[in-house]
């Protein structure tokens, strides 16, 4: 079993609520939370996926409960927070992870897919925090919140516009939230998680249903690149969970990728030049 850091030991015995935990990064973080001795509330829009992950945690000797939650609906997050606090009395860790990738030209993405992307990726994070923070503040206990941004929050990419803009929004929201909770002198730490390339199912063909047809080429290219060169998702999530426990605002999985994206962004802003794709991503457009 992987070692547990001293910081992670502070999470033991607490309740972890993770959205979009039926697959990918969310599922891996849920399993890690179970390993740390937390009671894990595995939420997902798919009941079967959430139940499967919760079952795997229990089979490994941990504690977990599956809940079906559509994070695109603010009232669903209100209900989730109410249920968790009524049943368990507290939530030590909240990870707003749920998100979808949408590819295609801005004007060709169907309205329903645009709305789903904005509601899940942005509003799911915002209303997750809004629903849980009042009770966390009221408890006076040490709590942790982590929002899943992305390395895409510091870059731009044509035909990945819908996803990229949501991650820019999550990054700025999380920075402001950090400052707000500082003003409140609260015991709630806030982290922005910026995964690089992890091996998940986010670029699988099934995940692209409802997006523009033009996005299918880039989706396959990204899928193949992730499969060939991505970091193992469990390895990445061990780094993420340790960073959350250590109360770091910036949490990377592949620091050099984040550094490169930020340096490119900073240069673009300082020089006020025309937008351009980072050199590392130009090949993707040529391959599409």
UniProtKB/TrEMBL annotation:
Family designation: Belongs to the short-chain dehydrogenases/reductases (SDR) family.
Keyword Disulfide bond: no
GO MF term (any one): oxidoreductase activity
Keyword rRNA processing: no
Name the UniProt record assigns to this protein: NAD(P)-binding protein
Superkingdom in the source lineage: Eukaryota
Cellular component terms per the entry's GO annotation: membrane
Species in which this protein is naturally found: Sporormia fimetaria CBS 119925
Pfam families named among the record's database cross-references: adh_short
Annotated SUPFAM superfamilies: NAD(P)-binding Rossmann-fold domains
């Amino acid at each position: 079993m992987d070692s547990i850091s001293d910081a992670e030991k502070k999470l033991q015995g607490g309740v972890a609520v993770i959205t979009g935990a039926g697959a990918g990064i969310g599922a891996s973080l849920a399993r890690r939370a179970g390993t740390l001795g937390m009671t894990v509330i595995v939420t997902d829009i798919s009941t079967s996926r959430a139940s499967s992950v919760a079952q795997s945690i229990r089979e490994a000797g941990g504690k977990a409960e599956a809940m079906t939650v559509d994070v695109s609906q603010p009232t669903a997050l209100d209900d989730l927070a109410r249920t968790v606090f009524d049943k368990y009395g507290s939530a030590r860790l909240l990870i707003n992870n749920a998100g979808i990738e949408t590819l295609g030209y801005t004007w060709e993405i169907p309205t329903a897919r645009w709305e789903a992307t904005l509601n899940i990726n942005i509003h799911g994070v915002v209303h997750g925090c809004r629903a849980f923070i009042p009770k966390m503040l009221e408890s006076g206990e040490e709590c942790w919140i982590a929002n899943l941004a992305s390395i895409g929050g510091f870059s731009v990419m044509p035909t990945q516009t819908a996803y990229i803009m949501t991650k820019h929004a999550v990054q700025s929201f999380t920075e402001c939230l950090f400052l707000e909770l500082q003003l409140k002198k609260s015991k709630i730490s806030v982290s922005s998680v910026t995964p690089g390339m992890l091996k998940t199912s986010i670029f699988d063909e099934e995940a692209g249903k409802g997006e523009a047809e033009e996005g299918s080429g880039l989706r396959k290219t990204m899928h193949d690149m992730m499969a060939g060169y991505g970091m193992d998702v469990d390895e990445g999530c061990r780094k993420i969970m340790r960073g959350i426990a250590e109360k770091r605002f910036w949490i990377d999985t592949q620091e050099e990728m984040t550094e490169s994206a930020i340096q490119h962004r900073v240069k673009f802003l300082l020089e006020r030049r025309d937008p351009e794709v980072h050199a590392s991503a130009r090949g993707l457009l040529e391959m599409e």
